[in-house]
Amino acid sequence: MLKRLMGDLIGLAVMLVVFLIVTFPATWLLMLFLGNVHVNTSYWGTLPLGVIVSLLISSGTTGASRRHSEL
User: Fold this and answer.
1) CB under 8 Å to 31, separation ≥6 — which residues?
2) Per-residue pLDDT tens for 5-51?
3) SS (H, E, C) 47-69
4) Helix, strand, or coil here: 42?
5) C-alpha to C-alpha distance for 53 and 28, rounded to whole angstroms
């Protein structure tokens, strides 16, 4: 039981690290934009919006590839 719990916790930690790495580019670009318009926020303050932008970009490109394959 303890081995399974440790395996689950390690898996959760790996997923968290992958999540932060994958959403980093969108969050970083949003931080640059918000800094230019003088809304200075930290990485953790911009992260929720960075996650939403990452999801929107990935969902938008998924539909485009499906449409091109039908042509």
Assistant:
1) 41, 43, 46
2) 999 999 999 998 988 888 888 888 888 888 888 888 888 888 898 88
3) HHHHHHHHHHHHHHHHHHHHHHH
4) coil
5) 11
Please give the single-letter amino acid code of residue 29: L
Q: Which helix (H) or strand (E) holds 26?
A: helix 2-36
**CA distance between the termini of the chain:** 52
Three-class SS state of 1: coil
- Contacts of 46-50 with C-beta under 8 Å, sequence gap 24+, read 47/23, 50/23, 50/24, 50/26
Would you say how long the chain is, in residues? 71
